[in-house]
Fold:
Amino acid sequence: MYKIFDTTDEVSHYAAARLLGTIKAIPTAVLGLATGSTMVPVYAQLLRGLQQAAVDVSTVTTFNLDEYVGLSAGHAQSYHYYMYQHLFNELNIPAQNIHLPDGMASNLDEACQSYTDTIKIRGGLDFQLLGIGTNGHIGFNEPQTSFASRTHVVELTAQTRLDNSRFFADKHEMPTRAITLGILDILEAKEIVLVATGRNKADIMAELYHSEIDEALPASALKQHANLTIVLDREAASALPREAVEKKIASAPADFL
Ligand code: GLP
Structure:
């Protein structure tokens, strides 16, 4: 299902409201969380919503999608740092309920296996929040990743390194490898919300709209999921066929309360 809103603010509000709805419905929810610039306003809105509705998150569990190999939790560009900065520092989710892949693990393969296992032990993901890379990656699952993949180490493509090096003051610090949840791990989430905003996502969203389910386009794996919502602003939807956009336009979401 597609939802298209006029503004990024409305998109972020909608995505945050979906997360909030899951937490309210399932106080012990297991949430799959994403990073990237798209999620900054989503988490800001989520914090606002949680506060307004006085929701307790002390029994929520989170698993992040991915992490760079070689960046410590304290590195300002690590996803660990990002998550605390934008979300966890403001919430009382117990530390033992917060999970991110360990990009500093001495045995990366073991760390990957244990990440997938821990999700299963915790009962699987109730909700997976996703962004998308300009090459169609989800998490850090780059084109041609097997749709049967579990958490694994990836070599980042030149396109991803170029896109993400904008966050690194010294471009040479941009890691070349990352750990990511596999595509099958993502597909096993009960509910998936993919968010894309801005004109730089228009081409990939059009490609995804028209694509068959094909490992060349990682996000196309999501088309086989029974509970997927793709949330776009007008800019990210600007290369979709006009009739499709008009049918999927949503009105601004009501406030959280
Ligand atoms: C990174 C992350 C993805 C994210 C993508 C988009 O590569 N690994 O999980 O979806 O970037 O990021 P942005 O929201 O900054 O465009």
